[in-house]
TrEMBL record:
Gene3D superfamilies: 1.10.150.900, 3.30.70.360, Zn peptidases. It holds the Pfam family M20_dimer. PANTHER family: ACETYLORNITHINE DEACETYLASE (PTHR43808), PEPTIDASE M20 DIMERISATION DOMAIN-CONTAINING PROTEIN (PTHR43808:SF8). Signal peptide: none annotated. This is M20/M25/M40 family metallo-hydrolase.
Length: 439
């Protein structure tokens, strides 16, 4: 058995590296997004060729692979485990390594997608192959989804499957994906996160119009840029309150337990001090309890001496769970009259923590690391869970990685020189195997 488990761990590392070597960049522009997602999915299909699979492709080159693991009891609800094959762009000039070489050195696998999220695909595929070698068949059916287009909007990936092929999810009531499962350092050892919620997303485009004319003649009160800047100032200066609902309370209770201190996000200085032992991942918790609104783009005019008749800005808003409607009301007040606002949105997602599925995740981790602690996690990111939530599926983040102290995990997401520790992949594959054996 030890030799078989060693093979599984080696496969997890190798599969992650091989996937990184496929440039599956999703630029958001059909003209510059290639066929990397399809090539990744085809490779995964080869690795899991013993299992039945289906292929869905809304746009050529952007394939989605659905693999089924039949369960012993077809009456039981099925579980979905999903991961995306696309990655964000990487400028090789800014990297110290080739972002698509999948280089393995210094105890890490380097390249775009190493943590977002070809690490999960490598570990999951290796763990599934190992359970097949052991002859295991789960009690309930498991659906593995390897999808395109998560990094932009999911219209060619999970959103496409949910809207056009809901039969794929027949009988599925729970799902596992990103973000969660990673370990954080605490004074008493590693605590593994389990994602139970993600903030709502609202991308606002503000369009102001006004008088167009010579810069010496058009007063600011009539000019589109001045109107837009005033609205952006109100938005940037607004202090969104800390929101402590049932989900936030669960996360705060968990933080207090693993850190051994009282944790209150309404005490700004004390909150930062309490989270300090978490190291680089502290920021992933500190912004979880309030709505945020970040100005990301401003466009207006073409000449210094001409007031343009239109000015446009975008604002990336992340909404505390359950506050979607309240956010819209307050944001409209901040924008004020005379500015058109259009939206791209995704509701907040929340799943219960006290469930049998969460218990099986915890048991899988402790089978590999008996002293592990656990921490419910609320992410500010947006994932394919937003599409699955439309079907009433409870979504959890569980990509198990035992991270070394000081590892800048949040900085790896979409960052320069993205990498994942080899040991984290090896340990994660063991945890996922234990999880699969428990289903």
């Amino acid at each position: 058995m030890a030799e078989m488990l060693s093979l599984m761990q080696e496969e997890a590392v190798r599969f992650c590296a091989e996937l990184i070597r496929i440039d599956s960049t999703n630029t958001g522009d059909p003209a510059s997004t290639g066929d990397g997602e399809t090539r990744c999915a085809e490779l995964i299909r080869d690795w899991l060729s013993e299992l039945p699979s289906e292929w869905f492709e809304r746009v050529p080159g952007r394939g989605n692979l659905v693999v089924s693991i039949p369960g012993k009891d077809p009456q039981l609800p099925r579980l979905a485990i999903h991961a995306h094959t696309d990655v964000v762009p990487a400028d090789p000039v800014k990297w110290s390594v080739d972002p698509f070489a999948g280089e393995i050195r210094d105890g890490r696998v380097w390249g775009r997608g190493a943590v977002d999220m070809k690490d999960m695909i490598g570990m999951l595929v290796a763990a599934v192959r190992q359970t097949l070698r052991e002859g295991h068949r789960p009690r309930r059916g498991i659906v593995l989804l390897f999808v395109a287009d998560e990094e932009v909007e999911g219209a060619n990936g999970m959103g496409f499957l949910v809207d056009e092929h809901p039969e794929v999810f027949r009988g599925v009531n729970e799902a596992i994906g990103e973000v969660g499962g990673f370990s954080v350092p605490t004074p008493t050892g590693d605590a593994y996160t389990i994602g139970i919620a993600e903030k709502g997303i609202a991308w606002a485009t503000l369009r102001a119009t006004g008088t167009e004319g010579h810069g010496s003649m058009v007063p600011n009160l009539e000019g589109a840029p001045a109107r837009l800047v005033a609205a952006l100032q109100r938005i940037s200066e607004h202090e969104w309150p800390e929101e402590v609902d049932a989900t936030a309370s669960a996360v705060l209770t968990g933080l207090g337990s693993v850190l051994g201190v009282h944790v209150d996000p309404r005490d700004e200085s004390g909150f930062a001090q309490a989270l300090a032992p978490l190291g680089p991942v502290a920021g992933m918790f500190s912004n979880a309890f309030r709505t945020t609104a970040a100005i990301t783009q401003v466009h207006a005019g073409s000449k210094t001496n001409t007031v343009p008749g239109e000015a446009i800005a975008t604002v990336d808003c992340r909404i505390a769970p359950g506050r979607d409607e309240e956010f819209r009301r307050v944001f409209a007040e901040l924008v004020g009259p005379g500015i058109e606002v259009t939206w791209e949105t995704g509701q907040s997602v929340v799943a219960p923590y006290d469930t049998a599925l969460v218990a099986s995740m915890r048991a899988a981790v402790q089978a590999v690391q008996p002293d592990a602690q656990f921490l419910p996690f609320l992410t500010g990111g947006a994932t394919d869970a937003k599409s699955l939530d439309r079907l009433g599926i409870a979504c959890y983040g569980f990509v198990p990685l035992r991270l070394p102290p000081g590892f800048d995990f949040p900085g790896a997401f979409h960052g320069i020189d993205e990498s994942v520790p080899v040991d984290a992949l090896r340990t994660g594959s063991l945890i996922l195997r234990e999880f699969l054996l428990s289903q």
